[in-house]
């Protein structure tokens, strides 16, 4: 059945576009020419301007429905965030034009700040013309009706598994929405347990490659002997156990998205191999001389801070530049406010369904306890805490006494001893106790401790356990 409402809405937006006067301000003449040529048959009038200093005189003479405004100029105003400066100028001049910011990948965080200062939207260079037209139509519709007909980041796991109502998470959702349709390489930064893998999956789901493969690899867990075989594949007979030809993860992800988790944990030798593949966009299976072209969108993640990652004795800077066109910093759970309660309610419903138990509610004592905890294990720790509480629940209300956090954090150092020494001792003893409790089962021990298996193995090595 044809949706008449959607047709009417589409016709209305087309009409708004056809009658629109648009001003484009950018110091790149190629951008001005490209946008003018694209819009001249679509809109009533297009005016281009290289120098934002002329903005006041232009707006004094003429009104516009929409302004496309670059984020960076080589002008006399050297604020480091010129787009934000000129956006404020437009608002000060009482222009009622909607403003769409034109930005490069590196300025996306600043562009999101512009949204909070009154910009209607932003587009990322280089853009698809259809996407730019859609963004312009939406901004004109918002100006005409006072409301938007789109809701950012509603696809896939966003707002289903990847949850967050805090402003910091809404900014991340908006960034995902903007960068996902591009082929920019993404580096996701954040502490263990913050949900970096969910963000990687959301980027794929909202990308133009959504119907193609999504392949995840925990490269931090690959030994030198497995690294090349797993990522690049091997030919039969290349080594002792190579009983048949096997495609690597790059080939498996061809046309789609490859997510390399724990990227900071690979060796310098492995980094050199990876860099070569990313530069040449082709792989060679172990034991084979044939090169295979690959077309992938790369997303990487690490819990190592970018400043520490930039230490060349640990990680090649040329590889950082290659994988980090855009970075997404995922906040720790302790900085997300009431998202803690939102997530706790989600996990309680999930585990009540999973374990066939009646739905439980969180009373105020449980909420207060959760809101005042520091969450060193982040969302993963909260998840396991709620799972444990649901399993042990005797009735349909969870109180503060039912919320028991990871034993690895339950003990605190005494005030008269160095924190680092005490915490290391507490951590080592707790790990030993939990491993003994589970009779050496690393998977079960890691789950109770709120750690990944890889993270637990690192701690075992650290303490010579």
From TrEMBL:
This is Sigma-54-dependent Fis family transcriptional regulator. PROSITE patterns: RESPONSE_REGULATORY, SIGMA54_INTERACT_2, SIGMA54_INTERACT_4. Residues 21-140 form the Response regulatory domain. It comes from Segetibacter aerophilus. GO terms for biological process: phosphorelay signal transduction system; regulation of DNA-templated transcription. It holds the Pfam family HTH_8. InterPro entries: AAA+_ATPase, AAA_lid_NorR, CheY-like_superfamily, Homeodomain-like_sf, HTH_Fis, P-loop_NTPase, Sig_transdc_resp-reg_receiver, Sigma_54_int. The modification 4-aspartylphosphate is found at residue 70. Keywords: ATP-binding, Nucleotide-binding, Phosphoprotein, Transcription, Transcription regulation. Residues 162-391 form the Sigma-54 factor interaction domain. GO terms for molecular function: ATP binding; sequence-specific DNA binding. It comes from the Bacteria. The keyword Oxidoreductase does not apply.
């Amino acid at each position: 059945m044809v949706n008449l409402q959607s047709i009417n809405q589409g016709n209305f937006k087309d009409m708004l576009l056809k009658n629109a006067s648009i001003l484009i301000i950018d110091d790149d003449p190629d951008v001005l020419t490209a946008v003018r040529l694209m819009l001249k048959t679509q809109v009533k009038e297009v005016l281009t301007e290289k120098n934002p200093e002329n903005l006041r005189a232009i707006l004094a003479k003429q009104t516009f429905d929409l302004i496309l405004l670059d984020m960076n100029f080589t002008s006399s105003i050297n604020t480091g965030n010129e787009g934000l400066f000129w956006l404020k100028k437009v608002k000060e001049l009482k222009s009622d034009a909607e403003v769409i910011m034109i930005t490069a990948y590196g300025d996306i965080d600043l562009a999101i700040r512009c949204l909070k200062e009154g910009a209607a939207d932003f587009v990322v260079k280089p853009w698809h013309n259809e996407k730019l037209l859609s963004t312009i139509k939406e901004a004109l519709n918002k100006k005409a009706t006072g409301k938007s007909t789109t809701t950012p980041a509603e696809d896939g796991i966003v707002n289903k598994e990847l949850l967050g109502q805090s402003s910091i998470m809404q900014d991340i959702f908006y960034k995902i929405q903007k960068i996902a349709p591009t082929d920019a390489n993404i580096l996701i930064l954040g502490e263990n347990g913050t949900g970096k893998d969910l963000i990687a999956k959301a980027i794929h789901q909202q990308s133009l490659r959504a119907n193609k493969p999504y392949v995840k690899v925990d490269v931090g867990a690959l030994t030198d002997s497995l690294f090349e075989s797993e990522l690049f594949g091997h030919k039969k007979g290349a080594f002792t156990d190579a009983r048949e030809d096997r495609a690597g993860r790059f080939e498996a992800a061809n046309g789609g998205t490859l997510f390399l988790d724990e990227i900071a944990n690979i060796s310098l030798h492995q980094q050199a191999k990876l860099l070569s593949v990313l530069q040449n966009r082709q792989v060679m299976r172990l034991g084979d001389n044939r090169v295979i072209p690959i077309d992938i969108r790369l997303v990487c993640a690490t819990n190592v801070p970018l400043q520490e990652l930039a230490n060349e004795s640990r990680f090649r800077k040329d590889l950082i530049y290659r994988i980090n066109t855009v970075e997404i910093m995922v906040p720790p759970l302790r900085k997300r406010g009431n998202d803690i309660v939102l997530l706790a309610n989600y996990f309680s419903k999930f585990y009540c369904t999973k374990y066939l138990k009646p739905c439980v509610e969180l009373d105020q004592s449980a909420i207060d306890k959760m809101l005042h905890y520091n969450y060193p294990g982040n969302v993963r720790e909260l998840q396991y805490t709620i799972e444990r509480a649901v399993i042990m629940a005797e009735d349909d209300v969870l109180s503060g006494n039912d919320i028991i956090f990871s034993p690895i954090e339950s003990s605190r150092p005494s005030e008269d001893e160095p924190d680092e020494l005490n915490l290391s001792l507490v951590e080592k003893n707790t790990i030993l106790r939990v491993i003994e409790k589970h009779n050496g089962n690393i998977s079960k021990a890691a789950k109770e401790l709120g750690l990944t298996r890889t993270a637990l193995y690192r701690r075992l090595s650290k303490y010579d356990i």
